[in-house]
Amino acid sequence: MDIQGLDYNTQRERLVLPEYGREIQKMVDHAVQLPTKEERQRCADTIVGIMERMFPQNRENPEFKQKLWDHLALMSNFKLDIDWPFDISEARQIATKPEPLGYPMTHIPVRHYGKLIFEIFEKLKTMPEGPERDELARVTANQMKQSLLQWSHGSCDDEKVVSDMARFTDGKIQLDLETFRFEKMTEKELRRRKK
């Protein structure tokens, strides 16, 4: 359907800074076209005043005026020939987007345990026997059980934790269910940890 005079934002030119809206962009475009420097300066001052009123909560910020003039320079594509009250040389840095961060793609055999638990498994493989290794194994086993409870919707099997611990430490850690006791966790604690 094509109605005369009706257009959609998707059909219009993309806004440089959409937070100011299309009307402010039109004012900036108009200011760039004005014939004399005095008219452009007066128009730019008025536009910055309107932009300032749009965000009154930022007036207390000492760098707010600088930011508004930088935004004006960006919206005019640096074509506005006026006497700038602030240095706008840094304004281009506002428009540059940072490089996307790379997502760590490490292989985790069982995702619900997480990367850190597998790092602990590697540490447990190399640790000498003793109370320190026993304590780390105990804490790790309890964390594994909590992870299973959280990700398995409340169902957990102690034998599964013991089996996984032995498998992922290459048999170095063998917990005996006859002597090893997991920490008790109530439903209330489980719900609190899920939040």
What structural class do you assign from the helix and strand content? mainly alpha
Element order: H for helix, E for strand = HHHHHHHH
Spatial separation of the terminal alpha carbons: 48 Å
**Overall spatial form:** elongated
Question: Fraction of residues in helices?
Answer: 40-55%
Low-confidence residue ranges: none
Sheet having the most strands? none
How large is the share of residues in beta strands?
Answer: under 5%
The average pLDDT is 85
Q: Give the strand tally.
A: 0
Number of helices: 8
Gyration radius over CA: 31 Å
Please, could you describe this protein's structure?
It is elongated and about 90 Å long. Helices cover 51% and strands 0% of the residues. The chain is mainly alpha-helical and 195 residues long. It is built from eight helices and no strands.
